[in-house]
Amino acid sequence: MTYTTLVSTDTLQQQLNNPDWIIVDCRFSLADTEAGAKAYRHGHIPNARYAHLDKDLSSAITDFTGRHPLPNFALLAKKLGGWGIGNTSQVVVYDDAGGAFAGRLWWLLRSLGHDKVAVLDGGIKHWQKQGLTITTTLPTVKPALFRPYLDEAAWLNALQVQNSLARKAICLIDARTPERYRGEQEPIDPVAGHIPYALNRAFQLNLDSNGLFLSVGKLREQFKQLIGATAPEHVVHYCGSGVTACHNLLAMEYAGLTGSKLYAGSWSEWIRDKNRAVAAG
Questions:
Q1: Known active-site residue 26
Q2: What is the pLDDT of residue 220?
Q3: What stretches of the chain adopt beta strand conformation (E)?
């Protein structure tokens, strides 16, 4: 069986020693960028490799980009191969934040033409809650060849977002908290507010009180209510820097509302150009 959205801790545990299954730890903290790597060294799911959001899953910030620009895809493809990921591998990604960071690698792999990737539902927290094994042993990695088949239609740039909004061709969804969306708080970026006409759905709403994804039925109902008559392929997600927006995109895919896209630069890129409109409230 192929897993393309979520995978349970029980299923992963049964496949731990399957050489075709590659596990990647994506833990990260915006407040302390080395906290994830440290946590990985202190204990991770057996056979997991570690992917660093800044160093592996993003490229360098410039004066025109947001905080997590898309990586160099040729370089990323080499890294994936170096982690033992081939084109037939079943990849499982996890973090300790409900999928907020793992969702980025899930989306990147799909953009590279690799659909056999799933986020571990509940992440390492649920894994530990179930009493499953944690290790400090580094995995023995057998490098593979990963051939990328890049789908550049998977994301939009700022100009495409601007033009699509002007034509009313997209439904834009902001994955940040309501306080940040309304412009009442902005703990990270220099300008507060949101992109005009964007709707708000904080990615945390995709999870239940145990940090597990809501049922397909609930997610489908909630997103349908939000997007109305808009076809899923005309929905575009953004957040602060193009990371947690992937969580809403994942939730829609899991709910069977397939084909939505990412505004990769997100808010932190949008505000780099003073000519781009900003809304509050």
A1: no
A2: 98
A3: 6-7, 21-25, 49-50, 90-94, 117-120, 155-156, 171-174, 199-200, 235-238, 261-263
